[in-house]
Amino acid sequence: MEPSEYFIQVLDKVLMPVHEELLDVMRQLLPGVPDQTVQLCAAGVTGHCLFFDNMKQLIRRVRPDLSLDRLGVDLVTDFVYRYACAGIASMAARP
Question: What is the pTM of this model?
Answer without folding.
Answer: 0.82
